[in-house]
Specification:
This protein has 500 residues and is α+β, with helices and mostly antiparallel strands. It has two domains: 305 residues, Beta-lactamase, CATH 3.40.710; 116 residues, no CATH class. The chain has a six-stranded antiparallel sheet, sandwiched between helices. Strands 3-6 form a two-stranded antiparallel ribbon. Strands 4-5 form a two-stranded antiparallel sheet. The longest helix is centred in the C-terminal third of the chain and has 30 residues.
């Protein structure tokens, strides 16, 4: 039974989805935003999943009509002015900067990346010359995490990221498939710096943040002033953890902002990036390509919904725009566990979306992240008990029992200790690969698990490492002949033993 336990848990983690069940909207409130219901929906989801803090902003027409913080940001209360990392929402800022340079005639979206970064190349030399700025903007370069096995240090530069792509292999033909790829936006960050001669953070400050009055938003980690504590999750409980900052990926995932500032941003973008680019350029930003992805935004339902999110190890962001309804909302959460990104954040976002659009929030949404975490904890305790018993048996009777077996049975005893954990790892890897698809990479995924899925990482180690250790011990005992020293057996009855 032991090997089945982690398999069941891992499988449940990655198939547990938030399937909302909506109650019919109340006719009296159709189209209205009921802020009391909104408060209740947010607080209910926080309690359900054990979320530490949430900051919410709602935009209606040309106004920010609601700003509120819920829970804590560590030692302080969460407020709409509390800073948090916005993850991949940063990409929309980078895309906006590129769009501005295009509008100024300083950049051609259809030009090869090598026109601006001559050192840019991937493993395929012919593809290197064909990948354009547009391909990177729309995630259609043919590159993906599954073809890129590089771990850069946190203090690497965007130029280091560009250089590392020489080891990247295409996983799709250039321009023919949507494959979300973080490093593509690192390259766009480098292009921005090369064309402007400014640091990315300085350009963004001058041409995006200052014009919008986003005074508490920055792409410079040194300028962070009021950052919330960030949390991961360990067996269902929120655990504070320092958020790693990867300098080379600021423009792809490490801008810091507040709910209040992001409300200003949402207001501008909902209205066609007014004051930032011309209408024709805005139309290009919000025109979907492959995968319904425009320039830093997902566009669905014919443009009725425009959104992006962000997922760091300890933070989560959602920005949803509804241009045809003239509404938008922003959610910043100081919890970043990977299961939260796919379960609790989906449930929280759908609840807020329902109220903002004048509907009744979902009645039932499936799994609680707390339940999943508690289940993992119980499995770990069970595995610890089973492994403790196995080690006791190993050192108290295994040698005596095994030395009487045939050589083939002895070999099987050793091999079995390696086969079971190996089968578990193969199953886990296959499930991860199926779940992440083109974004799966063995090296980067398991490296990320230590921070983004620490309890699952512990569960995987507890489920496999002790068996490997026992297998090594058994192999050493067999290889060194410890099993060959048979204990003295008394002679058959009537046989005389002579002493020499």
């Amino acid at each position: 039974m032991k090997p089945c336990l982690p398999l069941i848990f891992i499988l449940s983690l990655f198939i547990a989805t938030a399937t909302p069940s909506f109650a019919p909207p109340a006719a009296a409130q159709a189209g209205q935003i009921d802020f009391a219901v909104l408060d209740s929906a947010v607080e209910s989801q926080m309690s359900r999943h054990g979320l530490p803090g949430v900051a919410l902003a709602v935009v209606n027409g040309d106004e920010v009509v609601y700003l509120k913080g819920y829970g804590t940001a560590g030692a302080q209360e969460m407020t709409p002015q509390t800073q948090m990392f916005i993850g991949s929402q940063s990409k929309s800022f980078t895309a906006l900067a590129i769009a501005q340079l295009y509008e100024q005639g300083r950049l051609d979206l259809k030009a090869p990346v090598q026109a601006y970064l001559p050192d840019f190349k991937v493993a395929d030399e012919e593809a290197s010359a064909r990948i354009t700025v547009n391909h990177l903007l729309h995630h259609t370069s043919g590159l993906s995490e599954s073809g890129y096995s590089v771990l850069l240090p946190d203090n690497a530069t965007c130029q280091d990221a560009v250089s590392s792509l020489a080891q990247a292999h295409l996983t799709a033909p250039v321009g023919q498939k949507f494959q979300y790829f973080n490093v593509g936006y690192d390259v766009l960050t480098c292009i921005t710096e090369t064309i402007t001669g400014q640091r990315y953070a300085d350009y963004l400050q001058q041409y995006v943040l200052d014009p919008l009055g986003m005074s508490h938003t920055t792409a410079d980690p040194a300028q962070i002033e009021n950052l919330s504590s960030g949390y991961t999750r360990l067996f269902g409980f929120a655990v504070p953890m320092k958020q790693p900052v990867r300098d080379f990926e600021i423009g792809a995932g490490y801008i810091v902002s507040t709910a209040q500032d992001m409300a200003r941003y949402a207001l501008a973008m909902k209205s066609g990036a007014v004051g930032l680019v011309q209408p024709a350029t805005a139309q290009a930003i919000f025109t979907p390509g492959l995968g319904a992805y425009g320039m830093g935004w997902h566009i669905v339902d014919g443009g009725a919904k425009v959104f992006h999110g962000g997922a760091n190890e300890t933070f989560h962001t959602e920005v949803n725009l509804y241009p045809k309804r003239d509404r938008a909302f922003v959610l910043l959460v100081n919890e970043g566990h990977q299961v939260d990104h796919f379960v609790s954040m989906g449930q929280l976002t759908s609840s807020v979306e329902a109220v903002v659009l004048g509907r009744t929030p979902p009645v039932s949404q499936g799994w609680s992240v707390r339940w999943i975490g508690w289940g993992a904890g119980i499995l770990v305790l069970g595995l610890v008990v089973l492994h403790t018993r196995s080690f006791y048996v190993l050192f108290n009777g295994w040698i005596e029992r095994t030395r009487r077996l045939s050589p083939l049975r002895k070999a099987w005893e050793v091999a079995f200790s390696f086969l079971i954990p190996t089968a578990i790892l193969i199953f886990i890897i296959s499930q991860l690969k199926a779940f992440y698809g083109y974004r799966f990479n063995l090296l980067t995924t398991f490296t990320y698990m230590r921070l983004g899925l620490p309890d699952v990482f512990v569960l995987m180690l507890i489920g496999t490492l002790p068996d490997y250790i026992q297998g090594v011990i058994k192999f050493i005992w067999v290889a060194t002949g410890k099993l060959n020293h048979m204990p003295f057996a008394p002679p058959p009855a009537g046989e005389v033993v002579l002493n020499s």
